[in-house]
């Protein structure tokens, strides 16, 4: 084992996923010397085992469904998907799990990349242990940013390791289609992967402990997605828990709390995420290993003026785009503090405050139908003490929707605050609605009054005309 003299940087970033990359990009743009440490592939979970491969698997599924519901085209897509071609295309989107391009990007912004396990070793100090045991010590003049993300959280079932279950990583990188797949969970990963693998040829069984799918969204979102999964042939069982799981002669056997025995080739547990902080030296700075890191709106860890926690690791919003947003905020805050900039803009909607985390987080679930939302649900708004009204519209009533897909089914909901007549939240469910959510995000983040929205004219005939239907329903109800 070798160790060199400490290397001094203005900023040290632990984790080179999209969040860590964006922190480094912003600090380098401000002229701060920056080191970035990565123990796996540069580009992180999103590039290789989450956002990119999952959407590459799902895009052919959605395109096929759209074509099958388009008069004059449906006869041309009557056969099954070419699973081998879909998987090959997915491999291309992950760069075949090689990070050369991402490494080139890091080098291009002028940051120094260190491969190995990064661990805090006291205030402003990061120790990097390489694959061969070599050690480097990096010290930061101004800030250390922890951007290590999350990992799949598996339940404590006896013998689970021996079963070799799928997590989101295996589900997005598998090289063949399992004949039978059990999916445990009812959240985003569960429904997206059930949608993809069912369409690629698996016989999918979805086991949901709760009463329905996508329970953090409006209830109708999970209901419409559940109907579609069942219509595609998936076996969906709610109110069901797995009590034991084993692998017998290569076959997975899952036993439910009702005593049902389900056999499959693979089993995917999509039952939550845990912070990747168990082995990054948190104890050396008085923090608990394995914990989520509490931060203020500038993403600075509570009680540590030099330490930042950005992205999933702070548990504010476990979404890549939201983590990148936080990274831009954190990078700006680090640069401003390094320059002793007076009057840090840390108030709501300031340049150094991640205000959107509290009230304007957008999300798209890429199932068929898609589910997209931003801001508060009706239940969340009422729980927060807002006096609100929910306005619902059948998306099939919009001309653009009927053109998009024959027999279109979908729904939209707008949550209006009755005190100041601004929109607190919006949810869309239906084919193609993922492209609507940014307009809703602008409305919610911009706190646009309903009276002004009347002057934002949606083009005809597009699905975005749903905005006019929502305003009319609010006016007339």
From TrEMBL:
The keyword Flavoprotein applies. Keywords: FAD, Flavoprotein, NAD. It comes from the Bacteria. Residues 361-467 form the Pyridine nucleotide-disulphide oxidoreductase dimerisation domain. The keyword Cell division does not apply. Residues 9-321 form the FAD/NAD(P)-binding domain. Pfam families: Pyr_redox_2, Pyr_redox_dim. Belongs to the class-I pyridine nucleotide-disulfide oxidoreductase family. This is NAD(P)/FAD-dependent oxidoreductase. The lineage of its organism: Bacteria, Bacillati, Actinomycetota, Actinomycetes, Kitasatosporales.
